[in-house]
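subagent[fold] <- orchestrator: predict structure for attached chain, return tokens only, no commentary.
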Amino acid sequence: MRRVLHILAAFLSASAALAQAPGIVWEQIHTDIAVSRPHCARLSEEGELVVGFSSSYDVGTVRWFDLNGELLYAVDVPWFASGIRSLEVLSDGGVIATGDGMPTEASDDWGLLLCRFSPNGELLWAKAYDIPGAEDRGLDVEPLPDGGFAVCGYSETDGDKDAWVMRTDSQGDTLWSVQWGWIYNDAAVSIYYSDNGLAVLMKGRLPESGGGRPHLVRYSMDGEIEWMKYEEYKGTPIRMCEAVPEGYAMLVGKTVYRLDPLGSILWERNVPANGETWEMYTIEPVIYDGFIVAGFDDEKIEPGPDDPNSYLGRVSSSGEVMWWTSLERETACWFHDVVQLPQGGYMAVGRYGADNYFYLVRFEPETGIGEQEQPAPLLAIGSCVPNPGRGSVSIHWTSAGPGDTELTVFDISGRVVGRSGMGILAAGEHSSSWSSEGLPPGCYIVRLTCGSQSAAAKVILLN
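subagent[fold] -> orchestrator:
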């Protein structure tokens, strides 16, 4: 499980009225980096921004930045042509990435790319997975508890795409590989591990539908389909992320769908924007409450330019729009991904101008959310001790009512590293313990859920 909680930020709560969008700390236009599209960004355990993209010359590259936007190091995939479309930071600080590429100029076609990098940016290995006569592309990758990886994407032959899902070991050797499709132009766009299985968001075209529609498919760890959900969904699926305490959020066109673990819709909400045209590229969870989406809109402030504007918007866990902002600049600009920062605020990555320069913007922590006088919380963590510390951590909390209670612990990349169900607990003061044995030092998030209530706290593990 990943990306559920990226990092601990300011306490945030939903508000019926739109809150003020966060201000900008700084923005940078890297004129030395031209990108076809910065496909993904993640935050490392050390607080570094890791970005994967394709350069304008078909060179797949991963770059590490500090939180002031300074480039720390970069590494390219040493192939004839390549592109990186998704990456994840691993528990050892390394990076796994997927995309597409041609290892040599003599390669017959583009293959699905899977490559692994060390924590200091060294390329450890890069492998191509090729279906003869097809153009193959990886769109998302998921680290697995056994050290291996799950990858999804598509294989295209004569203009027709089939979704492609595969599982590998820690060295990228294939354990199994499956293709799936209805009529044509099918693809698998997001993949997650949970409860000893894989949830895959797919785009599929049915005989009676005019275009692709979302399919949520559950695979066993052996590659067998356990169930499929699509009847309730409409539109073109963009991305999916995990939600707290369970389930998923799916971005379909300009709509956010909140799904339960079996794919049923809990709520749906259109993303607001000015202008007649806007498009979202990604959705990510926000600690404590809701989701953030990134993309562009075409809001105009006369006599402003007739170009796309970078866009961020936030939706609460109950489906309320909390805020959104559109950045109009002298030329076109887009946001393609966003991460939440440990000290609050966000970092968004995208493209700027006709030359597609790498664009990086840091946003302030949010204000105007939850500033009204609030009632006492129904669930509150009083302390985690020792903190900082090592070994067993005691968590003490108070609940105002009874409820089914669960303790979940995440690392800074959002991966679940501990979970304990406690059943139905009465109102009052409670305590539980969590063993950090076998975990590296760093920042971890302890999250309690009791019924529909939740609370979280940061725990620092020492050497």
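orchestrator: received. Logging for downstream: The chain has two domains: 24-363, 379-461. Residues 24-363 form a domain with the Methylamine Dehydrogenase; Chain H fold (CATH 2.130.10.10).
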